[in-house]
Amino acid sequence: MSSAAETAPSPALIEAAPPAVVPLAALHPVPLFDRELSALAFNERVLAEARNPSVPLLERVKFLSICAHNLDEFFMIRVGEIRDLIAANVAADSRGTGLKRLQAVRDGARSLLREIYRCLGDELIPAMAKEGIRVELVADLGKKERNFVEEYFCRDLEPILTPLAIDPAHPFPFIANLSLNLALQLESERGERHVAIIKIPESVPRLVPMPEKTRFVLLEDVISSHVHRFFPGLKVLRSSAFRVIRNSDLDIKEEDMQDLLKSIEIELRRRERREVVWLEIEKGVDDPLLALLAGATESSPDDIFFAPGPLKLGDFQQLYAQTDKPALKETPFNPRMPAELATTDDIFAIIRRGDLLLHRPYDSFTAVIEFVQAATEDPDVVAIKQTLYRTDPGSPIIAALSAAARAGKQVTAVVELQARFDERKNITWARTLEEAGVQVVYGIVGYKTHCKVCLIVRREAGELRRYVHLSTGNYNAVTGRLYTDVDLFTCDRDFGADAAQLMNLLTGFSVAGVQELVETKGNALRWREFVVSPIEYLRWTIRMIDREAQNAAEGKPAFIVARMNALADPSVIEALYHASRAGVQIDLLVRGICCLVPGIAGVSENIRVISIIDRFLEHARIFRFANGGAPEVWMSSGDWMPRNFLRRIETTFPVRDEAVAGRISEQILHIALADNVKAWTLEPDGGYRRRTPGDQRPIRSQEMFISIARADSVSVGPYEESIRHPASIRRKAKKKKKH
After folding, report:
1. Residues 495, 465 contacting (CB under 8 angstroms)
2. pLDDT at residue number 268
3. Measuring CA to CA, which residue among 412, 334, 417 is closest to residue 375?
């Protein structure tokens, strides 16, 4: 394994060393790693999987493309936000001046980009070539293959391409965010120089497969090789690929908002034309063309990157999808159905017997779809209320809610329109649901509805009973196969009452009403089990941490195990430091950003931070507290980030069923903490060290969970089929068990 795969570079601290750890100002005297540089460090760990020779080759290509895609989003959001702060004359904040931060972040991103291209050119391309997988230049193809490419160009590309000249009558065209373009330098017979732009179409594959299906040519190379057809009488001197990344952070002014949907539609149109924050150009571009592109996009030298290979490497994930070489991929796994659900016709009866846990993607998201579809078909169900943050194309959840409304049931959907980069999709879903008769609301202005809740009201024996589904993950069948999450089904009365109150809050409260609840600490609402953000989640989190510190001081059992995507809230980190000083043993499973500095003598020596990077993206939020010897387990939709505490509607809830809590504690958390194959440990200097088995048995937590699912659950066949037809799949499983 390369050294790069064993030790990911350290994210810089808030200020350059010395000292190694710099406390914030007196208001928050707590050592923190810089959030943006910690995000880059996460992507360095993703890239380390692309460099790891023990990972199947095409999976390595996928990790590289994921890293590149993540970096695109990093520029759009994080770099864009820093530039917004600078533009607003926010000269300094707790993490340093805006310009200083911007330069540090750009330098870190530029360094990571270089490593991505080094990995591609030095490691992945040679390794793929040994397996017969090649991305070739059109110029290097044989005559028969060039004819194939020419036919493809004439048939599938030429009719949809539009060359755009640049001259006094044709100003420089608008360049869309993330779009790939060719800048063409042309020369007339009289020696006059011209420039033209061609946008690379996004409607056709970026990697064009040759007849052998393991050899590819790049779409821009195909176009560049035939672009002379558009310019008779002109000579094509050079073709240079380029693209821009634009600031994509939505800026919705709440005080000016009359209609949330219309305001978001207006802001989305504005976002498309926001300023360029990063310009990528194919290496070798000459100075006049560089000057033209930089001037037209208003890019400074610090905003420009010269790519030593193909641009937009996120598209290289197509190699994985288009190459049929199973030996170069992970062994396929189809999520399975818990045995008690796979063979029943009555999911509500199963839930009445006791709370039910799903551990996705090992347990199938099909169970969630079946829950909603069963409510749609059940004549005793009178109402369905559900939140929707991100969902998938052709969503079976959307279809079920629409069918329920058409069947005359009371159906309410809280659709969050501001789910980043899914805004247009969610607007479309909202209108689809409204057309079916669903009562659609958009949540509360200023607070993203990020909680995952489905409430079903069913008439039983003359009374109404509430069934509740709660999750750490979205109602999305695509990510349901790719992300690890936990789901809880229950018909507990207190959970049902809280779910109903939460839905009433989302549909009936104005932003002023929520702000009043925050200011009064939610005294007007009485939650039986839920902890709801922004009303109480932050105070609850600090209170639970402080309780462990107090118990440790009194000699009682004290520990904290917390699993999340990101940890960045200074007040929570300060509470964790306080608990560590009190002697609380703290294990943090933080997949991505972590601003906490572990291992500082007298501050955080009792804190261990682990990050797992594997085939599934770790997405669950789970908290376990010793509670003086009576351990408690909680699940949540929210990370420990300022935005989750202050600007989102989140739900955190206890796991009361002892069997479910035991499974989470003794299986899900225990195995994850023992991972010594795909886990990384955060060091005090900010670097991440890969955990290795040494003399111990190798433990790869995700593979262990797959083995457990195969042993304890029931196969329901191909995932794509099961999510489209969950009831029929369940009946097949029932029949299989009988035989």
Report:
1. no
2. 75
3. 412
Mean pLDDT of the chain: 90
**Residues 652, 531 contacting (CB under 8 angstroms):** yes
d(CA 270, CA 272): 5
Confirm whether 725 is a catalytic residue: no
Residues 512 and 514: their CA atoms lie apart, in Å, by: 5
Distance, C-alpha 561 to centroid of its chain:
23
Alpha carbon distance 450, 647 (integer Å): 10
Using alpha carbons only, give the angle 396, 401, 407 rounded to the nearest 5 degrees. Answer: 125
pLDDT single digits (tens) 365-421: 999 999 999 999 999 999 999 999 989 888 999 999 999 999 999 999 999 887 777
Measured distance CA(108)–CA(97) in Å, rounded: 17
Which segments of 201-303 are extended strands (E)? 207-209, 215-218, 234-246, 276-282
CB 347 within 8 A of CB 374: yes
User: How many angstroms separate the CA atoms of 359 and 367, rounded?
Assistant: 11
User: pLDDT tens digit string along 7-60?
Assistant: 554 443 333 222 234 343 333 467 999 999 999 999 999 999 999 999 999 999
Gap between the Cα atoms of 605 and 325, Å rounded: 47
In one-letter notation, the amino acid at residue 360 is R
pLDDT digits (tens, 9 = 90+) for 347-361: 999 999 999 999 999
Please tell me which residue, 717 or 511, carries the higher pLDDT value.
717
pLDDT at 212: 86
User: Among residues 69, 226, 359, 450, which one is catalytic?
Assistant: 450
Model confidence pTM above 0.85: yes
* Burial (0-12, 13-18, 19+ Cβ within 10 Å), 17: exposed
Hey, what are 727's tokens?
A: 């009831």
Q: Dump the DSSP string for 350-368.
A: HHHHS-EEEEETTB-THHH
Please name the residue that has the structure tokens 């048995």.
Answer: 697
Those residues whose C-beta lies under 8 Å from the C-beta of residue 150, and which sit 6 or more positions away, are 226
Closest CA to 430 of 420, 410, 416, 419: 416
582-603 confidence digits (pLDDT tens):
999 999 999 999 999 999 999 9
Where do the domains of the chain lie, and which CATH numbers do they carry?
160-322 (3.30.1840.10), 337-525+716-724 (3.30.870.10), 532-713 (3.30.870.10)
Instruction: Please state whether 34 falls in left (phi above 0), alpha (psi between -120 and 50) or beta.
Output: beta
